[in-house]
Queue: 4 jobs
Job 1
Amino acid sequence: MSQARPKVRTEPVQSATFSKAVNAEIRRAAETGIYDIRGGGSKRRVPHFDDLLFLGASISRYPLEGYREKCATNVTLGTRFAKTPIELAIPITIAGMSFGALSAQAKEALGRGATIAGTSTTTGDGGMTEEERGHSKTLVYQYLPSRYGMNPDDLRRADAIEVVVGQGAKPGGGGMLLGQKITDRVAEMRDLPKGIDQRSACRHPDWTGPDDLEIKILELREITGWEKPIYIKVGGARPYFDTALAVKAGADVVVLDGMQGGTAATQDVFIEHVGQPTLACIRPAVRALQELGMHRKVQLVVSGGIRTGADVAKALALGADAVSIGTAAMVALGDNDPRYEDEYRALGTTAGAYDDWHEGQDPAGISTQDAELAARLDPVLGGRRLANYLGVMTLEAQTIARACGKSHVHNLEPEDLCALTIEAAAMARVPLAGTDWIPGQTPI
Amino acid sequence: MLDLAQTPLRDINAALQAQARGGNRTRWEIANPRGSHALAVGLDAPIEVTIRGSTGYYCGGMNKQATVRIAGSAGPGVAENMMSGRVIVDGDASQYAGATGRGGLLVVNGNAASRCGISMKGIDIVVRGNIGHSSAFMAQKGNLVVLGDAGEGLGDSIYEARLFVRGTVSSLGADCTEKEMRPEHLALLDRLLKDAGMDDARPDQFRRYGSARTLYNFNIDNASAY
Amino acid sequence: MCGIVGLFAKDKRLEPQLGALLSDMLITMSDRGPDSAGVAVYGHGHDGRAKITLQNGDPDADLDALVAALRHATGETIAATRRGTHAVLELGAGAVNAARRILIDRFAEWRVMSTGGAIEIYKEVGLPARVVEAFDVPGMTGTHGIGHTRMATESAVTTHGAHPFSTGADECLVHNGSLSNHNNIRRDLARKGLTFETENDSEVAAAYLTDRMNDGADLGQALECALRDLDGFFTFVVGTRDGFGVLRDPIACKPAVMAETDRFVAFGSEYRALVDLPGIEGARVWEPEPATVYFWRH
């Protein structure tokens, strides 16, 4: 008598290389014939500020008393050539985001929040709106390859000019805003037909290379009477060379955007596979400034994945003069808020993962031109929320700086840091925690 | 008369720009430009500026209202992002002439090099001679009139700008196509030629080119054009 | 990234002024490149004789000892002229290779800038005005010359990183732009035995042309090949013993202006560089077409 034995089978194993997500993307590509376009920055885990820790003070260093002993946070941008540098109360600015990508209400909220907090906000690839100029005490005007809406009057009523060479999400790439967001007002500002896909160029139309850029900067200064700081924004590609060349071309400020920096819309393959993590970009850029004798003379603004006061303090400790936030500011306004979970699900996604900003269906009413959705964001309330968030980040950065004995956040140094991982230690050029080992650093 | 051999560029531009805030001098001359950059930029008054010689990059950049005549040749980016007014080049214009211009009239009496009218957004450009390659690339709005020949890749990725060429076109760029010349186009061309002082050209000698509009919304079958 | 100038005299009466005209053209382009500057000047040379241009950063380096050692080793009469940090040796053309080997083996602190029957190359870090003065370029006579002022992009700011680059007898190249596949080309050429002094993309372009010409191409053919094999943005101006060539990449957005009269052909990154040339008012002035080889010969 033999009894039938249940058949023993190998547990099914999903391939790590061909994961469910990868396979789904292959099927999607086969089905639609178009690459994935999305907003935001890199979503993959890369070495980041989380992998660094501050050492704080104990016996060998003395801390400052919180709330009583002053720790300043002010920063001046544009001290090199501009007659009127930008004075900010905090070292955190709002990055360029276009009207078009964002609603007019969202742009207004950013201006209001930045103004309350004592910092600047920035236009984007779509020109300057009355909403943001009117509600921004300090407004940086972006000068982009597309030149949408560019005009000398706005150039003159800006407080600084940011020549955008690239951004961290897509160094070397242009943009793509799908037709759904090209409404009448957006189309008019950009001199485009309504409803078409807007293709942004990857190079400026009338200069290429640092030698020509130097002449372009001369023109911008001549038009604005040498008053306004000229920033140059680059994506985190070759930060050492790009920073040095921006300085040679005559920049007052270099804005350096790592791969976690967001975009309104571009190919996912670009966001995830081109550019370097923010953490890896800072030290080479600072080294370029130091070698040219320009550190703290040409200011360095770092962006891409800044979320907390700890991130701010770490970026400053590595040598930045200020940081800039984009995605975090949108989240502060309400982007990806779980209270809209039902609507996110209806769009086939979930709160926290929504990145189809280019489609203009944002339930939070931020990355949209739909009047009904946009009305969900109250610019006054949004501005207040942003100001609160900026205030918290500033207090956090001060807390850390005081703990390290600094009376100004700019006095944080790389030597105040250690790294949790070998990767972060190598990129930030600070020792691995518990050791005096900096990978790749030649012994002195 | 302002002399660049004696007066710094910044002072010359400041003097011309100050006319926007009220001035009584309507005619200006600039001597010895010798290829200087960013000359007569950011003007905003109905003045007439004549530059006696050849200029460097971005002459007449972002012009409003003023008439700037270059009695010589112009370097790269002449009249870039012009808003209104006129820029007239007696000689040749280098690359990027009229780039991103949003209004006004640019007249080139000689030839214009590559990328003439790149990303133009409403400017009118009239060139007596030839234009170089990649002209009217991503041209959004406005009119480009060429009495001579056009180089390779004319009007690549063009939007709604209108291109009129009297001579030959080496090749058309992606999504640029020849279009029917209708009466309203002949009338427009007639006005542009007269405005630019091109008395010896007749509208019916030209062909019109513009967007085929096949790239306006993504279609997988057009992927090879990207 | 840079400013380029070039002057090719058709009229022999311009030859005594070549250095002076070229120097002024280069100084005008200073804004385009603050890091280093250099010139290649082609003189008439003497039949059967060749020149080696050397550089040594030490102003007190003993040139006499070097000349004596070379004379002893080669049996040649050697004339030596010192100009700033550079020196030009003139010797029998047949002895150049032997002399070069001795220089490399025994006098490594003297670095070879160029060899050939006509070419002399002078280059240093600093602005054009200082560099041309240091070598008295304005006093030089020549049939044609090329100058360059450099804004370094990715490779070091050193004398050797300055342009022109010379990788073959009487050949030189200057470049404005940025190549995007030079590392692979460099590896291919190194496998064929070519040697490189710098990490500079422009040196790769020079060596690439040398390699083509070693394989039998003339300069025009070598430039045609460059269009096929070199990727990125470039405007090249190149010189040979009796020729002068210009090439722009197919996208052609780095600036280039040319002028031609009965007396000369001139190149400038900007028109400014050409404004003082004699008879420029009547010259044919144009911008070279993309992907088109321009070439003049004496």
Job 2
Amino acid sequence: MKNRLVTQMTSLRSAGQAGVAPYVTAGDGGLETTLEVLRALDSGGAACVELGIPFSDPIADGPILQAAAQRSLDGGTKLGGILEMVKEFRQGGSEMPIALFSYANPLLHLGWEGAARASAEAGVDAWLIPDMIPEEGDEMSAAAQAHGIAPIFFVAPTSSDERIARAANASRGFLYAIGRVGVTGNATTLDESTLSFLARIRAGCELPLAVGFGLRDATQISAVTRHADLAIVGSAFVQRIHEAFMAGNQAPHAAANEAALYLSELMQGLKR
Amino acid sequence: MTTDTFKTATRFGSFGGAFAPETLMAALLELEQAWLASREDRGFSAELAQLLEHYAGRRTPLYHARGLSTELGVDVWFKREDLLHTGAHKLNNSLGQALLAKRMGKQRILAETGAGQHGVATATACALLDLECVIYMGAVDAARQRPNLLRMELLGARVEVVEQGQATLKDAINEAMRAWVGDPTAHYLLGSALGPHPFPSIVAHYQSIIGCEARAQWQEQAEGLPDALIACVGGGSNAIGLFRGFLDDPAVRLIGVEAGGHGVETGKHAARFSGGSPGILHGCYTYLLQDDDGQVLPTHSVSAGLDYPAVGPEHAALAALHRAEYTSCSDTEALLGFERLARSEGILPALESSHAIGWLISNASALEGQRVIVNLSGRGDKDIDTIARIREQGS
């Protein structure tokens, strides 16, 4: 399949380069804030954005992303509104890939087919579903791919080589490596076990590789991108732009400026 | 031996499945494999049977409640799980899974609890089998089921009080699952017949002793088969345990009673079949109370154990097959059931079990002359503060 994300990852891979993908909780600070943040990340050279769909029961998330989802839901964010916002972002002509990071239920509630159509029409490129495993993913995957959406599965340090191969085979665009055991957000010290896990995946997988969970600075980005094509920064990113937003009288540009600043710091880690 | 995919069916009809974070898959696969192996292991079965008989106090009686039967015009029999050690059916599953965890070489147990009965049962099994035990309990439930919180601590468990969300059972499960994602070498001892495969099958397996015994006891004490079984349904472990003894007896009606709260029409309830629709929560596809955006809705019940927005997937499948029927009982009806059983039979039932009794009382005329087994899944000592508070407010 071909879409903005697949094209991006293929070109990074063939150029021997890596990228940074910030995670943004959609509707945290309101959707107008999210829209400005996306524009700032596009201008700043983000390789991709993971756009988090808030869910009432995020079982794989730590306190920071739980709180962000709750703020967003309390503000009245709906999936339909998020997709409208993505559509508005695309009207500016941006080709920055957008991956929706959503628990299964909000998408399933529209029906996989309906959710895939709505996502594609808005200009979404991929689905990352943290409570979806390849064994359960056939219907989701077929609907996504029929609409040009890349289904992306996860691998963890606890995954066997067989499971890694299966997830890679079922994924398009990239394979998502959970860098360590645990929920999102806890500080990661990158040790040999994380790096050898990434090397183990790399050995058995042709697909571009993204790594996330607990990354927060350029030094870590530099370390993981020796093995991975994409470094995802989630909780640290959400927290930093939330704090800037609150400190900046809840002005969307306060969040957007901080997003651009933090992205540029993180991208220092890409310089070889 | 390692395995990289499940060996048994993960679904009940179209319901169930394993919608779990990949980090947990190795643990779920290991659990399924260990559970299947334990079922072939005579030594394991004998040890569990020994504990259930001499430690937990099985078999529990099937009691013919003649006084209540005369009053209602319905022949009422109670399966007395309230008489099991720790005061509820939950110990059947906790002992089974704790023994299984021990067999797997696990040293640390994580569990959630709503009413506190599963927490107490698990803390008990862990004390007995020398396992470290951490229980997650919502702050609202910790307050309304305080005696059980204290019991867990006295048994040596650490209780983590959960403040997130509505601070009830759903939120306790969220936190327990997060803790398991952080430590997949621990065993998550899930207390109801829900969650990702293989939990719904394992819990139903350990609870099916209720129905197996009840069927045998019925044959000993009565003729033929009962006309209906009645059990309350939160996640649904006591109900599936009873129903499983009679699934192949199509003449026996299976009636699950959900928490009607203030009434299904008010939105303040936990009646998933009449107020919900299929969706995915806590690892399984089942009936779920959710809004039009797929967000899980708040629930209400006077009973902490039934105050949960999803139902075990096997119940969803039994409903789809029209093998079981699911109905609801309001807070008020449940409280009437509690009082009626106390006065008529000298038994204080748990508020959860009071829903089955309350429904029976409200529907007695339609069941006139029939013979029914009601699962008295737990005892009501834990609820006396709640009852006293409601009486004060009402007077």
Job 3
Amino acid sequence: MALFILRRVGIMILTAICLTFIVFFLTNLYPNLEKLAKTEGNQRMSDEQVELWLANRGYDRNLFVKYGEWLGVVPGYVIEDADGTVRGRCFGTGEEPAGARRFCGVLQGDWGQSTRFGEPVQDIVFKRLGLTGWLMLAVMCVMVPGALIIGVLAGMREGSKLDRSLSTVSILTTATPEYVSGVIFIAVFASSAVGLKWFKGTATSAMDDITFANFTLPVLTIALYGMGYIARMTRASMAEVMTAQYIRTARLKGVSFRAIVLRHALRNALIAPFTVIMLQFPWLLNGVVIVETLFNYKGFGWTLVEAAGNNDIELLLGVSVVSVFVVLITQLISDVGYVFLNPRIRVT
Amino acid sequence: MEPLSWTGAMGPVLNPLLLAAVAVFVVSLAVQVVLSLVTTRPVPDGPTLSAPRSLSDYAGLGVTAGFGLAVLVCLAYLVGGLVIPGYEAKGILGCLSQRLWPVWLSLVVVFVLSFGFKRRLGLYGKLFDSTIGMLGFALVMFWVFAGIYGAMDLILTHDPLSQVSGMKNKVPGTPLSGAEDGDYPYYLLGGDNLARDVFSRMIAGAWEVIKIAPFATLFAFMVGITLGLPAAYYGGKLDTVLSFAANLILAFPVILLFYLLVTPEIVATGIPVYMAAVLFVFPILFFVVLFNSRFHTQPQKRAVYIGITLVLGLWLYLGIAWNADPLGIISFPPNLLVVFVSVVFVNSPTVFRIVRGLALDIKTRDYVAAAQTRGEGPWYIMLWEILPNARGPLIVDFCLRIGYTTILLGTLGFFGLGLSPESPDWGSTINEGRKLLSIYLHPAITPALALLSLVLGLNLLADGLREESLRD
């Protein structure tokens, strides 16, 4: 078991390195750097000036060296430019190069400076991640129990009217992406022209103070899209378990239907949905980006959009690192958890 | 001119009827669901044919009757629109129905023909045994026809890009201000915040989806199949490397990938073209290997098939990937290419995993062993023994994946990535409309419902196909 986890962690780290390298490569392409130089320096820089600007800040060197510096395994650059200004990765302009650390990268906790917000990237990322954490927590509290109940109710009597109705509902929710359901929810529940005006159409105020009125719609919007998928998986798993031999045995023994469902079927039927729920995280991240944009909730997804829209390279890299790690860690938990939950799988 | 009402002259008769039908449907459905939760069906005593009717049966009757009546009333709105003369009397629904007449005609023709030859059409024919499948098929074909006829300019009431002064954010059914002879006199579904016709933009948006989503999905399937089959069949190092690469792409949050790939800066570096150059080789490779493995004992036939594939394939390849069609017929605008490529790129790893899983299962079957004993080549076994036997799940997944691709395209439009800001595609329109959503609903709700119905149709279609393919 320990070896299995160790191997999975190894693969995970390899994947993380590959992914961050790809993001690094894509964000450090020359057109992006040129845009950066022009927004940070001067819009009317000539090509030579752009190149000089980039060279003074170490952007023109080998991609792998830059990646190593960013990661913190290669010493940061120190470049003296033509007019004598010394710039380095590990110290600000005007500071003494002598006192600075040699390595400063992601591993040392130095994630760079955001050009969009003018703050250190790690501060922004973790602050926004906290806000999104509340959203995710609320989504999970709505989505998981809801999906499991729908799935179990539908799957316990396959082919019944209840099953058909619930399956139709889950198909409907999987066919409704967040930007469609969000728009419909706002129109029905929050529009000032027509509609019920029960909730607020924006969640900006929820950043300070979460209330029922400002948080319901974003949470419902994200939860709904994932709910149908998990419910269908649970239904399939439940339906399969209900045809198993031991359920028939229990029936023949005269166990009541309620007891069969609750005591015999449920536990075995919930193994498969566990994996599915864990693997939903990458999709939830999508939903978070859409919903935070739609409801103007300034969390992690909103930061991603801002970073990408404003060519904020360091912030985008920071956001990617966090999202890639969230995805990979949930995958790891899902793999390990599946082995723990399912006694039929033995890892040697 | 007066603004149009929703239902016109049919309203006073049909609206109460529709309300009643919906009420009956909802109430009996609720009763039925509750009953099925608390009671179990009584087991008939002895060889009786007619069990006494229970409350649950009456509820079932109510569901069927309510649903049927509602469908009939909706049909009446549509037929009324075709039959009743005069815009005012037709109402908005009637006018919409009248504008969409080529779609109705095509749908009727398709359904009549398919019903007539149901038993000779294989899996497609069997689809017409399942209500869910038919419903899904109808929804999908509605949008396909609407998109095609929209592009042929048979349905649009106005130009989707032109702005008419005085029509900004007008509600559905507003008469066109300053209408001249030959102009359609109304904005049927209202105007958006740039005073463009919402209905025409919705239909034009359908064409944007119809021309990208199925092909992008098809390309993703070609890539996934061409890589997934050998990964499963050979296993070993090849499998490890390919699976790792697939998991790598799958671990990317899709939106991050889009934000990194679909930007003008990336287009400027030419990366999408190289990606297209790699991804679009796979279909050619697929067909060449397909024909080669089948006809390598008949050199003449093989030469013909492979020749045709190569000529056609390379022509399309040069035109689509490199925008360098020697005949100058095919051209692919660079920002459409980047959308196409990124959608294919995101979809293919999932297809790869599905194909690999199916092939791993099928390769242990006896007929594969028999083919191996006969001395067939590995590619023949993969493409002519394994692939046809995996077709059921693949077709089902294909339908689902077109829906998913539609959602992805909408996401791209929603974030304003790739397509031009004026583009009438549904995602961009929703994004534009959402800014004024709390005051004017129609510009955002219309494309949202359109997208919802298309994706729902594809999901229902997939469900129907799955049910019917499992039956035998």
Job 4
Amino acid sequence: MCSAKVIPINTHVLEQLDFEVLDSITLPLFGSYVSAGFPSPADDYLEDRINLQEYLVQNPTSTYMMRVRGNSMQDANIHDGDVLVIDKSLKPADGLPVVCFLDGEFTVKTFRKINNKAYLYPANPAYKPIEITEEMDMRVWGVVVWILHKPVKR
Amino acid sequence: MTSLYALCDCNNFYASCERVFDPSLNGKPVVVLSNNDGCVIARSNEAKALGIQMGDPFFQIRNLVEHKQVHAFSSNYVLYGDMSDRVMQTLSQFTPHVEVYSIDECFLDLGDFYDIDLFSYAWTIKRTVTQWTGIPVSLGVAPTKALAKVANKLAKKSSKANGVLVLTEPYHIKKALEATKVEDVWGIGGQYAKFLKKHNIHTALDFANASENWVKKHMTVVGVRLLKELRGESCLELEEVTPAKKGICTSRSFGSKLTSFKDVEEATASYAAKCAKKLRSQKSCARLVTVFIQTNPFSEHDKQYYSSKTICMPVATNSDIELIHYATMALKAIFKPHYYYKKSGVIVTEIIPENQIQFDLLDTVDRQKHNSLMKVMDGLTDRFGKSKVQVAAQGLSKSWLLKSDYKSPCYTTKLEEIQIVYNQ
């Protein structure tokens, strides 16, 4: 439990706030309890904590996640068990890792455009690039914007 | 000022949601089953072409499902709800005024957009939704909501429109009304359609040409509003804030047939608690609680029984404890032993805002205490998940829980269930 103390405020030094503005203000939670002792000098400097969601997700409406199985992209820092953050609103461009639907499966590869031909490049010497042709049933599902990788798998 | 509305409708929404995360289902017949895998509630175009009807019981198509000719899914409302939310949020980028009309339909007010190329704007909307969410949509644009509905239906049907139809020219509107059957007009139900056909009104155009007095006489002011809307005079405004519900119903089929009072009681108590939670979330209270139970009407060898009972509570409430108390009382009054029960439900009506409750002088319930208890319970549920705290009457055995044998993962809301990308 913490006790509160009324702090006298000199009203004429306060700025007038109009109520419309007041409505949209969310007050930050103060960093320390209001107590009878000396107020925390850090209270005036309080900011929101870093929001990882905001950092990783540009467009929440079009962002999805998928989990990686397999190692065909290991040299592009995409490893078995990683979580991919995928933005469906982005268009594939040369050099971007993309999730696509190929032969009945989701797969992640690097999208390449060379001499007006499109390719899907693996990042593992054991696998060959795939040229995308008209008759192939291939759709780019979304562009990978982040790879979430745990340093130690538990 | 001229009004202008777009109706955006997701094509075969539930089936489309399943396809986003399993594109191998594209071009194949897909159906989605009701709660408890009872009957078909959504079909892809391919499933429609096979002659599968809305509401067909699952056992009728089980054979097709087992031979992989039809892909069936238990309903995954968590997934559909999230995908619906994504579609609506994408749409709200195109105009500040939207009305979410149902899980898969949304009206957009384009009143300020008359000067732009509507056709290309509509296509931009359609393409963006499909790109961002993977859900195919159709758009109908017209001066009134009822006409936007007409345009949307035609946009979906006509291969020439290919999903987008803008009706602003009087000539086009006339052609569209001519091509729309009167029973397909928004708000004209089966009974009215029959009646109108008897009076030689077969198409939406016939109806739009009917006299206002005649319509008023036979179809009240609601009919007149519709008439005006079809003539291009906007009478139905955008409802951006959904009004609080007038009645809330929670009912489910049981996973298996139940005979014991205790099992049915537990299920019914849980439905009552769900109703109470919904009431609290819309800040209202209910005065009447109705409970119904029924046996399986599809079973030929079981004895059939259906009954319901409504209780008027002394004071309108939204407390789990009180609603469960009265729901159980109602259930006791109608429950008969030796039947195989398949379904029960709780309906609450006479709903009023929380702050307008009339208290009873002789009220014995400590309402303040109930209120704070419910707040704590809701808080715990938000923090620790569903069913971690509950009223004891809801039981722990849950032998009545739903069957959902064909449910897809919650691809967008549970990290453990996200789609796998294979890298072999």
